[in-house]
Design brief:
The chain has 367 residues and is of the alpha/beta class. The chain is built from eleven helices and 18 strands. Strands 3, 5, 6, 9, 10, 17 and 18 form a seven-stranded mixed beta sheet that branches. Strands 13-12-11-14-15-16 form a six-stranded parallel beta sheet, with helices on both faces. Strands 1-2-7-8-4 form a five-stranded mixed beta barrel.
Length: 367
């Protein structure tokens, strides 16, 4: 079938992207789903820093690639070996889980081995490529390629949700909430009475904030360099906000600290404000060559723990329904993470807004 989608033509073009135009809106051919795959009509998709990091070259991927990994839509066709039904609303998860490898047996702590390999090469979990343009392949982004009118994905890359969860909310559950919420619930695991601080208040960081507030175990503290993000965090229920310099100068020490900025200095700040015996959870993804300076002596003397949490240490099939129910129950204000709605044709401008720190989650409306 013919589809329309946002293709990254070349990695590393300079910003502003509205001028350099690394992403084109292209017409493509999409193959039918294979035995373990489904065809999804995309309704909504969110723009995430993981998309931007491919565009700017911080996390190189092969090109051309149909971008987008945070999205939701309706199943329109199913493969012969799938368990989904036509008409179901599904949330995309950007790391498929085979359920059998050594990574999948760690209860979410480690990513799926074949899923990670497929993501790195731009294929689906089966190893196949379903997108074509002008006689050549267009690669898949993290097994999803959700910046398009339709996508073929492995059924292990999607999770069904109630039709009562609207598509713009469902899309954000698949990455921002799964990652930020999971950093709190699966990795940080605050006990009753333990405060939580979040360093870096972008989409993932704000998702960690609303999850920590919903849990209600202790105070929630927000840390960011931008005043408007600190104000937004206060609106979402945090009890105190600081710039990184203010937090360190004030001697803030917190049992559970989530680093969600994806920057080496942010990790240093998060470590500096972690209490003795506390957990520093890093869920941001900086450039692979970036380094942070952490005191080994403090690690030992204060019995500290640093936890790496990829995708919020999540099992999407287990965790997404939990967040969906929290939203349905009025406990998780996911809509507060959405800063604007844009069209597919505005994708380059959307990347600029994200790079400049002006956006939490921009939702591309495709329905």
């Amino acid at each position: 079938m013919r589809i329309r989608g946002a293709v990254l033509e070349e990695i590393g073009r300079p910003a502003p992207y509205a001028t350099s135009r690394p992403i084109t809106i292209s017409e493509m051919e999409l193959d039918p789903p294979g035995p373990t795959e489904v065809l999804v009509r995309i309704e909504s998709a969110g723009i995430c820093h993981s998309d931007l990091s491919v565009v700017n070259g911080a996390r190189p991927r092969p090109a051309p690639m149909l971008l987008g990994h945070e999205s939701a839509g309706i199943v329109e066709q199913v493969g012969s070996q799938t368990h989904l039904e036509v008409g179901q609303r599904v949330v995309m998860a950007f790391l498929p889980r085979c359920g059998k490898c050594s990574g999948c047996l760690t209860n979410g702590r480690l990513p799926c081995v074949p899923g990670s390999a497929a993501n790195a090469t731009g294929t689906l979990l089966s190893g196949g490529i379903r997108i074509h343009r002008e006689g050549g392949f267009v690669l898949h982004h993290l097994g999803v390629s959700g910046f398009a009118t339709h996508a073929v994905v492995d059924e292990r890359s999607v999770v069904p949700v109630s039709e009562k969860v609207p598509p713009h909310i469902a899309a954000v559950l698949g990455c921002a909430v799964l990652t930020g919420g999971g950093a709190v619930m699966n990795a940080g695991k605050p006990d009753q009475g333990e405060d939580v601080a979040v360093v870096g208040l972008g989409g993932v960081g704000m998702a960690a904030v609303i999850t920590a507030v919903a849990l209600g175990r202790g105070r929630v503290i927000g840390v960011d360099a931008l005043p408007d993000k600190l104000e937004k965090a206060r609106e979402l229920g945090v009890q105190a906000t600081y710039t990184p310099e203010e937090a360190i100068a004030a001697g803030i020490r917190v049992p559970v600290v989530i680093e969600a900025a994806g920057h080496p200095r942010a990790l240093e700040t998060a470590f500096a404000i972690t209490a003795p015996g506390g957990r520093t959870v890093t869920v941001g993804l900086p450039h692979p060559e970036a380094k942070s300076a952490i005191s080994a002596a403090v690690m030992t003397a204060e019995a500290r723990t640093i936890i790496g949490s990829y995708l919020g240490s999540a099992i999407p099939a287990r965790d997404i329904p939990v967040y969906a129910q929290m939203w349905l129950d009025g406990k998780l204000p996911v809509e507060a993470l959405i800063s604007s709605h844009i069209t597919l044709d505005q994708i380059n401008e959307g990347m600029d807004a994200l790079a400049q720190g002006h956006a939490l989650r921009q939702i591309i409306d495709l329905s």
